[in-house]
Amino acid sequence: MSGASPADDPSAGTGAGGRPHPGGDDRAPLRGEVRPGRSAVASSRSALAGLIRRDLAVLRKNFGEFVGRTVMQPFLLVFVFLYVFPSIGQGIGSGGGTAGESAFATVLVPGVVSIAIMFQGIQSVAIQMSQEFGFTREIEDRVQAPCPIWLVAVARVLSGAAQGLISAVIVFPIAAVVHAPGVHPQFSVHWWVVVTLIPLSCVAMTSLGLLLGTTFEPRNIGVMFGFVVLPLVFLGGTYYQWTKLAPVEVGGFHWLQTLVLLNPLIYITEGMRAGFTDLSHLPLYVVYPVLLGFCVLFLGLGLRNFRRRVLS
């Protein structure tokens, strides 16, 4: 009846299944109950923010381990190539003496930042996701969040991208200062490139991590590093400029310079050189759209695999 009061309604103050709520309307919603007027978009947005905050809280708790994992490989690279080699007289930079060593350091440092972003993206997403799909089945807790399944994967990609951004901020100063006396890398920071390219690179590499983590079984992680990660590193322009590969040819065909264009890391390293140095590099009007295309491709395939793995 239209004139019935809440006191006359036997369902007032009860929840799902007719269970009473102490305190009437001033109550917390029961598990599985949806408040009237709360849209699916608002619920998904809150769930996404909660998932990201959870990952960042875990990162804050284990920040020391994160820094050690992030710094170790880049530090060893620059320590060996830019400190040990020049100190013991082992030539780098085509044997060009101090000038050659400085030129090589200028090439290497942006490459070190690039592989730090790549490894962080793979470690924070691919390895973690393979574990969650493995014995612990932690992924089952995540997908119970009140949001679409794909949003759970997006939350992991975004939190991994935040970690990649932090790793770039940590690694560049270390890579820039660890070198032998007489070795002087030449840097010229172009901020508009740095502040746009690094976030895009982080999302692209965590999207790649999502694809790898949903493709490889936990028992095949070693295969992933051997057949995917290592080729990406050595053919990703970490130790050389793309523009310098032209002499590697067969019958006039610059095969290596063409082959490495299939590697997403080459666009990050070349973009980093454009952002941190004045060295010759792959044109930025190629770097940005291709890197964005890789990001869309990796994220799309990763989300498809993620949904299949969750529902299987």
TrEMBL record:
It is a multi-pass membrane protein. One of its GO terms (cellular component) is plasma membrane. It holds the Pfam family ABC2_membrane. Keywords: Cell membrane, Membrane, Transmembrane, Transmembrane helix, Transport. Residues 22-36 have a biased composition (Basic and acidic residues). Residues 65-309 form the ABC transmembrane type-2 domain. It comes from the Bacteria. It is found in: Cell membrane; Membrane. Belongs to the ABC-2 integral membrane protein family. This is Transport permease protein. It comes from Streptomyces halstedii.
